[in-house]
C-alpha cells in the first residue's frame, strides 16, 4: 500500500499549504508534458488540443513541451510520435512495448510514473476521456501529487505555478486550483474545451526512448475483446461543425424528428439537453452539457432548450449560438448570439425547408439566373 | 462474498442557487441525496450478494448528517453501514479523500472480513472528478476496473472476474482477479425499491461510526486540508456576456419569411458557413 511508503512527502502544516514552499527535491522538475492518448491506432484529438494549450504554458515558463507516447511497437505508435511534433511538441518521451497494445491501467500507470520519476516534468496534462481519467487518477495517487479534473482554463501565474480553473457546483461557479508544493502539477481537460491548434509538418524532433519495466505475467488484467460502438456516428457529436439540439420545449419524443430532419438537411449532428436522455427519448451519447458532451461547432441551433448552466458550459465555445424559445426571458438568450422567440415545433419545419431551398444547388442556380 | 460500496452524500445540485450579489453558494435548505451515480454501484453490489451470497457494507466519509444516506442504503438492503466522520477530514481533496477511505476499507476488512469487491460510482455530481475510485484502488493495491457497464461473471473459487467496461469508441471485455475495485457506469441497472423488512431493519440498525483514530488512521497529516496537495485559491462567478442575443423580430411575419431572415442573419455572421453547408447538406 503506497500510503505506508516511508518517503511520502511531508505535507506542509495546515494553511501553510496555501503558500508556495516547494521542497528541494521538486525544484529540478521542469517542462510541460502532454499525454498523447492512443487507442487502437488513433490519436485522440484531445491530445492535440492539449498540445496547443501546453505550448502556451511552456512558452510562458520558458521551458520545453513534450509529448508522451505509450503504445505497442507498431506503425500507429510511430505515427503518434510524428503527430505530436506536428502539433507543437519539442520532444517526445516514448515507450513502445507489446504490453501497451490495448489500454490497461497497470502497464500504463507504471510506464507513466516511471517516466515522471526519471525525467521530472513540472506539469502533466491528460485528456478527461475514459482512458485519461482512469490513468490520471492512479498516476496522481502513485506520485502523491495534486490532480485537477476537467479544467476549462489553464494558466501560469507570476511565481510559475499552474493555475487550473474548473467549474464547480454544476458550473454555476468557477474555481482556480493550485498544486503549490508537489510535482508534477497534474490536470485533465475534456475534449473540445481547448481550441485545436494548427498542424505543421516539422519532421521528427528529439525522441527519448524508455523501456517498460514490467512483464506480462505481472499484469493481472487481461483484455478478452473489444466491441466497437455500432452507432459510430454518435462519436462525431463533439467534433461536428454544425449541431442542432432539442430540449424539453419540444414537448414530446415525436417532435425530435424535427431536430433530426433539420440536422440531416444541413449535414449537422443532432443532440439534446439532459431531460430528454432521462426520459429515454434520446441515447445518453447525444447529451450536450456538463455531464454530457462539450461541443465547439461553428453553428449551434438550440430548439426548446432553456439554457441552464449545466447545458451552457457544454456549448459556450460555439462560434454562433442560435436559440429558438417561446420564453423571451429564457436564460439561453443571455449567451446565444441570435434569438428567435417562437414555437420551435412550428418553426423547425419552416427552417428546414428554407435551408433546403437556399442550399440546394438547384435553387441556387435558379436564384443566380 | 464481502462487498464494500463507497458512497457520498451530496447536495442536490439541481436545487443549488448562487447568491446574485455575493456569488456564494446558497446551501441553506438544499436537500441532500446519495450521489446518483453511486446508486448504480450499490444496486450492482446488492445483485452480486443476492447471486453469490455474502454481505454488503456501505461506507461514507462525511459530517454526522451523512448518516442519512447510509440509512437510505440500508433501506435498499445493504447489510451494514460505516460512517467515517472526523473534523480532521474537512477540506480533503481527492488524494486525501482516497487516503481516508482506503484506510477505512482496510479497517472494515480487518473487522468484518476482507472485501472481494470494492464499488464506487463513476464520479460524484458535486466534485465530478472520477478520481477517488482510482485513488482508493491504488492505495489498497487493488486492480481497478473503471466505467464498468456489466459484470459478466465472477468465479469465487478461482478468484476471477470478467467485466465489460466502456472506453473511447467501444466496450472492452476484461478478465481480472479478486479483490478489485469497480467504478460503475450510470444507467447500468435500476435501484430496487427495498423490502419492508429492509426498511424496518434500516430504522433499527446501528450505524458503525468511526473517527480517524477508530478507523486506524495514525498519520493525520495525510488527511483533510493538510493532506491535500491541491489548494483552492479563488472561487468566482463566470463573467456574464454583456449583450443579450440579437432578436429576430417575429411580428407579422410568416414562418417562411422568418426562417429566411434567420438564415440570412446566420450567414451574415458566418459567411464561410454557407458553402460548407451547401457542400455537406445538399
Ligand atoms: C448534476 C447535473 C448535471 C446536469 N447536466 C446537464 C447536461 O449535461 N446537459 C443538460 O442539458 N442539462 C444538464 N442538467 C440539467 C439542467 O439543469 C436543466 O434541467 C436542463 O438542461 C433543462 O433542459 P431543457 O432546457 O431541455 O428543459 P427545460 O428547462 O424544461 O426548458 C424547456 C425550454 O423550452 C421552452 N419551450 C417550451 N415550449 C416551447 C416551444 N414550443 N418552442 C420553443 N421553446 C419552448 C421553455 O420556455 C423552456 O425555456 C444537469 C443537471 C444537474 C443537476
Automatic annotation (TrEMBL), chain A:
What InterPro entries does the record point to? DHS-like_NAD/FAD-binding_dom (IPR029035), ETF_a/b_N (IPR014730), ETF_a/FixB (IPR001308), ETF_alpha_N (IPR033947), ETF_asu_C (IPR014731), ETF_asu_C_CS (IPR018206), Rossmann-like_a/b/a_fold (IPR014729)
What Pfam family does this protein match (any one)? ETF
What residues does the Electron transfer flavoprotein alpha/beta-subunit N-terminal domain cover? Answer: 32-223
Assigned keywords, A-Z: Electron transport, FAD, Flavoprotein, Transport
Instruction: For the region Disordered, give the residue spans.
Output: 1-20
What CDD domains does UniProt report for this protein, alphabetically? ETF_alpha
UniProt keyword Transport present: yes
The organism's superkingdom is given as: Bacteria
Matches recorded under Gene3D superfamilies: HUPs, TPP-binding domain
Record's PANTHER family?
ELECTRON TRANSFER FLAVOPROTEIN ALPHA, ELECTRON TRANSFER FLAVOPROTEIN SUBUNIT ALPHA, MITOCHONDRIAL
Q: Give the family, as the similarity comment puts it.
A: Belongs to the ETF alpha-subunit/FixB family.
Put simply, this protein is called Electron transfer flavoprotein subunit alpha/FixB family protein
**Source organism (scientific name):** Mesorhizobium onobrychidis
From TrEMBL, chain B:
Keywords associated with the record: Electron transport, Transport
What superkingdom heads the lineage?
A: Bacteria
Per the record, the similarity remark reads: Belongs to the ETF beta-subunit/FixA family.
Looking up InterPro entries in the UniProt record yields: ET-Flavoprotein_bsu_CS (IPR000049), ETF_a/b_N (IPR014730), ETF_b (IPR012255), ETF_beta_N (IPR033948), Rossmann-like_a/b/a_fold (IPR014729)
Protein task: May play a role in a redox process involved in nitrogen fixation.
What subunit structure does UniProt give?
A: FixA and FixB form a heterodimer.
What Gene3D superfamilies does its record include? HUPs (3.40.50.620)
- Indicate the segments forming the Electron transfer flavoprotein alpha/beta-subunit N-terminal domain, all copies: 22-219
- What name does this protein carry? Protein FixA
Family matches, as CDD domains: ETF_beta
Amino acid at each position: 500500500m503506497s500510503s505506508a511508503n516511508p518517503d511520502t512527502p511531508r505535507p506542509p502544516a495546515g494553511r501553510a499549504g496555501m503558500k508556495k514552499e516547494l521542497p528541494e527535491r521538486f525544484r529540478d522538475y521542469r517542462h510541460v508534458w502532454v499525454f498523447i492518448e492512443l487507442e487502437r491506432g488513433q490519436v485522440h484529438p484531445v491530445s492535440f488540443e492539449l498540445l496547443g494549450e501546453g505550448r502556451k504554458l511552456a512558452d510562458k515558463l520558458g521551458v520545453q513541451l513534450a509529448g508522451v507516447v505509450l503504445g505497442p511497437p507498431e506503425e500507429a505508435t510511430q505515427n503518434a510520435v510524428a503527430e505530436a511534433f506536428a502539433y507543437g511538441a519539442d520532444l517526445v518521451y516514448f515507450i513502445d512495448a507489446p504490453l501497451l497494445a490495448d489500454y490497461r491501467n497497470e502497464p500504463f500507470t507504471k510506464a507513466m510514473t516511471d517516466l515522471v520519476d526519471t525525467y521530472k516534468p513540472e506539469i502533466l496534462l491528460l485528456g478527461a476521456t475514459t482512458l485519461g481519467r482512469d490513468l490520471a487518477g492512479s498516476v496522481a495517487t502513485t506520485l502523491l501529487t495534486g490532480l485537477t479534473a476537467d479544467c476549462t482554463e489553464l494558466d501560469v501565474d507570476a511565481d510559475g505555478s499552474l493555475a487550473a480553473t474548473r467549474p464547480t457546483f454544476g458550473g454555476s461557479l468557477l474555481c482556480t486550483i493550485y498544486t503549490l508544493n508537489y510535482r508534477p502539477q497534474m490536470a485533465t481537460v475534456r475534449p473540445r474545451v481547448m481550441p485545436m491548434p494548427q498542424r505543421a509538418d516539422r519532421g521528427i524532433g528529439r525522441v527519448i526512448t524508455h523501456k517498460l519495466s514490467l512483464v506480462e505475467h505481472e499484469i493481472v488484467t487481461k483484455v478478452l475483446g473489444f466491441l466497437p460502438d455500432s452507432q459510430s456516428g454518435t462519436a462525431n457529436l463533439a467534433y461536428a461543425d454544425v449541431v442542432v439540439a432539442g430540449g424539453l420545449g419540444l414537448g414530446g419524443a415525436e417532435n425530435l424528428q424535427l431536430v433530426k430532419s433539420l440536422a440531416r438537411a444541413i449535414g449537422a449532428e443532432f443532440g439534446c439537453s439532459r431531460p430528454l436522455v432521462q426520459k429515454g427519448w434520446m441515447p445518453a451519447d447525444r447529451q450536450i452539457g456538463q455531464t454530457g458532451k462539450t461541443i465547439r461547432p461553428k453553428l449551434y441551433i438550440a430548439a426548446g432548450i432553456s439554457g441552464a448552466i449545466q447545458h451552457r458550459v457544454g456549448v459556450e465555445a460555439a462560434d454562433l449560438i442560435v436559440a429558438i424559445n417561446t420564453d423571451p426571458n429564457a436564460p439561453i438568450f443571455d449567451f446565444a448570439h441570435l434569438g428567435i422567440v417562437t414555437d420551435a415545433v412550428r418553426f423547425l419545419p419552416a427552417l428546414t425547408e428554407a435551408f433546403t431551398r437556399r442550399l440546394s444547388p438547384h435553387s441556387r442556380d435558379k436564384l443566380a439566373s | 462474498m464481502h462487498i464494500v460500496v463507497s458512497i457520498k452524500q451530496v447536495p442536490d445540485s439541481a436545487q443549488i442557487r448562487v447568491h446574485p450579489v455575493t456569488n456564494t453558494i446558497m446551501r441553506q435548505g438544499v436537500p441532500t441525496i446519495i450521489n446518483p451515480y453511486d446508486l448504480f454501484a450499490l444496486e450492482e453490489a446488492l445483485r452480486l450478494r443476492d447471486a453469490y451470497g455474502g454481505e454488503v457494507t456501505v461506507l461514507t466519509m462525511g459530517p454526522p448528517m451523512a448518516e442519512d444516506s447510509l440509512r437510505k442504503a440500508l433501506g435498499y438492503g445493504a447489510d451494514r453501514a460505516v460512517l467515517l466522520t472526523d473534523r480532521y477530514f474537512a477540506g480533503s481533496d481527492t488524494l486525501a479523500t482516497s487516503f481516508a477511505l482506503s484506510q477505512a476499507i482496510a479497517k472494515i476488512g480487518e473487522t468484518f472480513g476482507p472485501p472481494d469487491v470494492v464499488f464506487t460510482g463513476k464520479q460524484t455530481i458535486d466534485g465530478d472528478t472520477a478520481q477517488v475510485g482510482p485513488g482508493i484502488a491504488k492505495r489498497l493495491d487493488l486492480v481497478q476496473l473503471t466505467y464498468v457497464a456489466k459484470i459478466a461473471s465472477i468465479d469465487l473459487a478461482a478468484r476471477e472476474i470478467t467485466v465489460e467496461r466502456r472506453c473511447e469508441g467501444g466496450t472492452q471485455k476484461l478478465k481480472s482477479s479478486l479483490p478489485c475495485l469497480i467504478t460503475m457506469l450510470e444507467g447500468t441497472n435500476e435501484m430496487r425499491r427495498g423490502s419492508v423488512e429492509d426498511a424496518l431493519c434500516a430504522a433499527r440498525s446501528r450505524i458503525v461510526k468511526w473517527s480517524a483514530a477508530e478507523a486506524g488512521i495514525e498519520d493525520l497529516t495525510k488527511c483533510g486540508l493538510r493532506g491535500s496537495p491541491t489548494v483552492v485559491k479563488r472561487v468566482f462567478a463566470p463573467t456574464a456576456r454583456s449583450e443579450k442575443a440579437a432578436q429576430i423580430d417575429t411580428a407579422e411575419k410568416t414562418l417562411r419569411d422568418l426562417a429566411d431572415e434567420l438564415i440570412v442573419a446566420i450567414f451574415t455572421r458566418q459567411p464561410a458557413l454557407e458553402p460548407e453547408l451547401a457542400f455537406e447538406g445538399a
